[in-house]
Amino acid sequence: MATERTFSIIKPDATRRNLTGAVTAMLEEAGLRVVASRRIQMTREQAEGFYAVHAERPFFADLVGFMVSGPVVIQVLEGENAVARNREVMGATNPANADEGTIRKVHAESIEANTVHGSDSAENAAIEIAYFFKPEEIVG
């Protein structure tokens, strides 16, 4: 198994409810280590750029609006098979379909306000990490 890095966002619905520590604890308990973390207020430009892959989808404007509605916590996570492990602990996008004990089953409010974002591949993780963090900000 390979140690790798992945990207995570604790979304506005979770920061609004003061769940940053609870979500981070679940990530750490799953064997992931936070090697970079910052609380930011994402700008509209940042959100549109980050989610550009969805620009043609009907939910794009709502997604961007949601992501700029409050602060988020951006994180770089490290661990064995970090991408897959993070996705496993996050749970299904729709919390109604998420497994018991996953972040989304425990904390998400809805399919839209689903508490966390996580990279879906090692390639996308590298792109997403570089979007928000400089190499020297990641301390492993």
UniProtKB/TrEMBL annotation:
ATP binds at K11, F59, R87, T93, R104, N114. InterPro entries: NDK-like_dom (IPR034907), NDK-like_dom_sf (IPR036850), Nucleoside_diP_kinase (IPR001564). GO terms for molecular function: ATP binding; metal ion binding; nucleoside diphosphate kinase activity. The active site is at H117 (pros-phosphohistidine intermediate). Residues 3-140 form the Nucleoside diphosphate kinase-like domain. PROSITE patterns: NDPK_LIKE. Keywords: ATP-binding, Cytoplasm, Kinase, Magnesium, Metal-binding, Nucleotide metabolism, Nucleotide-binding, Phosphoprotein, Transferase. Its cofactor is Mg(2+). Its EC number is 2.7.4.6. It catalyses: a ribonucleoside 5'-diphosphate + ATP = a ribonucleoside 5'-triphosphate + ADP; a 2'-deoxyribonucleoside 5'-diphosphate + ATP = a 2'-deoxyribonucleoside 5'-triphosphate + ADP. GO terms for biological process: CTP biosynthetic process; GTP biosynthetic process; UTP biosynthetic process. Transmembrane segments: none annotated. GO terms for cellular component: cytoplasm. It is found in: Cytoplasm. Pfam families: NDK (PF00334). It comes from the Bacteria. Belongs to the NDK family. Homotetramer. Major role in the synthesis of nucleoside triphosphates other than ATP. The ATP gamma phosphate is transferred to the NDP beta phosphate via a ping-pong mechanism, using a phosphorylated active-site intermediate. This is Nucleoside diphosphate kinase. The gene is ndk.
